[in-house]
Amino acid sequence: MSDFPQTPPKQSWTFSNDVNAEIRRAAATGIYDIRGGGSKRKLPHFDDLLFLGASISRYPLEGYREKCATDVWLGTRYAKNPIHLDIPVTIAGMSFGALSGPAKEALGRGASAAGTSTTTGDGGMTEEERGHSKTLVYQYLPSRYGMNPDDLRRADAIEIVVGQGAKPGGGGMLLGQKISDRVAQMRNLPKGIDQRSACRHPDWTGPDDLEIKILELREITNWEKPIYIKVGGARPYYDTALAVKAGADVVVLDGMQGGTAATQDVFIENVGMPILACIPQAVKALQDLGMHRKVQLIVSGGIRSGADVAKAMALGADAVAIGSAALIALGDNDPALEAEYKKLGTTAGAYDDWHEGKDPAGITTQDPELFKRFDPILGGRRLKNYLKVMTLEAQTIARACGKNHLHNLEPEDLCALTIEAAAMAGVPLAGTNWIPGKNGF
Amino acid sequence: MQTFDLSAQGLRALNSTLHGLKGQTNQTAWEIINPKGAHAIAVGLDAPVDVTVRGSTGYYCAGMNKQATVRIKGSAGPGVAENMMSGTVIIDGDASQYAGATGRGGLLVIKGNASSRCGISMKGIDIVVHGNIGHMSAFMAQSGNLVVLGDAGDALGDSLYEARMFVRGSVKSLGADCVEKEMRPEHIAILADLLKRGEADHLAKPEEFKRYGSARKLYNFNIDNASSY
User: Does A216 touch chain B (CB under 8 A)?
Assistant: First the structure.
């Protein structure tokens, strides 16, 4: 019998090594996997889109010579003091608590130097970020940790957080190991206990209530501040329409690649939609209401480069926000720290146990010994460089498409590499005039 | 006493005028007439002034109050005194949902009943309710005191942290991790002070109340507690 060839060992696609490892981990611990970051799946994304560039039918602009503007106004609908940014790449909300004080300072430094805004997070506003952020967006969250009217008034804009892309419909949990004295004091809770961030706001439910909540916030701040509403990528058409109806100046839309400080892996990977699928739906809602460009749209979730910025804007966004990419620019997951990642049982590029507070880069931690390693001035400089590069990249593409402002990029500049991306983005499959779902096909 | 006719002069003018009373002002007593259930009346105040609203209010009256004393001569809509920092808010009638939500300081007195989620996520505020409170009150309450002279609805103090609750009447049910606790002399003293400041010391004695608080079993995640949620 040994003369016959044997069937080679075959791994199951369904029960892959990764899946089996998770089953064994769950069986051993009795706890679901909690981690930071966004979806790690291979999702339809901006990589599946290409720009067509100029040709005989349209002419390009000269690089380094002809102007391609990048500025953006946010909050022009109702706010007395709308925000004007030099570049359309903003820093997404990330909390003090999830991040160290020096990391928040670096975000403020880098964003300000590049001419853009940064955003607080759950846990309130710190002096580090207010002091170093020329333009600071103050998040108004369900937990209301650290919420007070003085910080509301010294913010440049207010972002009412309804949801986020990593976990639409979910709250948060900052585990006890990251609850230092300072974090505990800001959140009015004892040190060392897990801090649940609620999934719903405590004093309003639904769009009609939200309209009244916005009225209250506007009255408290003298109608000066732009009011953003942030939603996770769940039902972007209806969420955008309802946010506009409730009186938002700006809609912030976060796809499932958007990061979180900590939540269940099963939530991150199975709830919500990729940002590529969300943007056209939100833009359509704005267009149907006659509010496109009047209520601005900021999109986030997996933005990594100027190409991603340009593609998001070509699909109709006014600006983008980055979170995970900003942390990487600061030094998160740097291979230079590989020996320390190994000690934590992981590797550079894969480290996502931010909730444990042991970040060797000193960014997602409250351990003074660890966050002392992080230099906020150097971190700020790195972030500024990265933001500038993204902007230059986006301008390069826009000029190639013959656009003298990033906002002039349009869906007609794009084609898709896959049928899925063509259907989601509403642009033709490359080499065809076929947009799945359009014109009855 | 300064009188402000809300229906004639409008909400923006009202709040703008009250926000202007910072620092030294001789205009420390205000009366708002014709509120007609308007939302966001007297929100974001930050001065030691007395404001009396003659009638019932809509959502978020006295929201985020600092220093001011606001009296509502009627009933209050949802979210009255939400996120109050300091000062006093007194409601002669009933209060709708989320009264005193996320309040950080000051005193909220409700002379009628309060609806559901009274004191939700409270973070240091003191609330005295002369009547009953609805379900899910003091949900995830972090700190401060909730005093109820009447009865409490279902799931009182669900998932609460360090807030104290004193209930004189019946409690329909306790929420997850909420338990009855021993009433010690220091609690009697706290309660006596709250009853006095809440204009309720002629209605009830501290010894008539039971104290409720957190069993602190859910403070750190444990899979064996999953059935509690």
Answer: yes
> Is the reported ipTM for this assembly greater than 0.90?
yes
- Could you give the 3-state DSSP secondary structure of residue A68? coil
A139's enclosing H/E stretch is strand A136-140
- Residue B174 is given by DSSP the state B
* Inter-axis angle of helices A236-246 and A275-288, nearest 10: 40
What's the CATH fold of domain A34-409?
TIM Barrel (3.20.20)
Residue of B nearest to A195 (CA): B219
Q: How far is A250 from chain B, CA to nearest CA, in Å? A: 22
> What whole-number distance in Å separates Cα of residue A102 and Cα of residue A371?
7
Smallest CA–CA distance, residue B184 to chain A, in Å, is: 22
Residue B220 near chain A (CB below 8 Å): yes
Contact between B43 and B15 (Cβ < 8 Å) = yes
Check which CATH number belongs to the domain holding B127 and give it.
2.160.20.60
Three-state secondary-structure class, residue A230: strand
Q: How far does CA B17 lie from the centroid of its chain?
A: 25
Mean predicted lDDT score pLDDT of chain A: 94
| % of chain B exceeding 90 in pLDDT | 91
In a domain, B228, yes or no: no
Q: pLDDT tens for residues A311-339?
A: 999 999 999 999 999 999 999 999 999 99
Write out pLDDT tens, residues A65-124: 899 999 999 999 999 999 999 999 999 999 988 899 999 999 999 999 999 999 999 889
- Chain A residue numbers touching B105 (CB-CB < 8 A): none
Cα distance between residue A91 and residue B9, in whole Å: 41
Domain enclosing residue B114, as ranges: 2-216
Q: Do B82 and A203 touch (CB under 8 A)?
A: yes
Nearest residue to B58 via CA among A142, A204, A200 = A204
How many CB atoms neighbour CB A101 within 10 A?
21
Residue of chain A whose alpha carbon sits nearest to that of B144: A188
Q: What are the chain B neighbours of A196 within 8 Å (beta carbons)?
A: 140, 159
> Is B114 inside a domain boundary?
yes
Would you call B223 an interface residue with chain A, using a CB distance cutoff of 8 Å?
yes
Q: Is there a domain that residue B226 lies in?
A: no
Chain B: give the shortest CA distance to residue A400, in Å.
49
Domain boundaries, chain A: 34-409
- Residues in chain A within 8 Å Cβ distance of B102: 144, 147, 202-203
Count of domains forming chain B: 1
Asked whether the beta carbons of A160 and B113 are under 8 A apart, the reply is no
Contact A254, A164 (CB under 8 A): yes
Residue of A nearest to B120 (CA): A202
How far apart CA B197 and CA A413 sit, in angstroms, is 68
Question: Closest Cα to residue A66, out of A401, A406, A399, A407?
Answer: A399
Q: Using the structure block, give the residue that is written with the tokens 């500049």.
A: A413
CA B199, B205, B210, B213 torsion: positive or negative? positive
In a domain, B221, yes or no: no
CB spacing of B161 vs A194 below 8 angstroms: no
A184 touches chain B (CB under 8 A): no
Distance to chain B for A122, nearest Cα, Å? 14
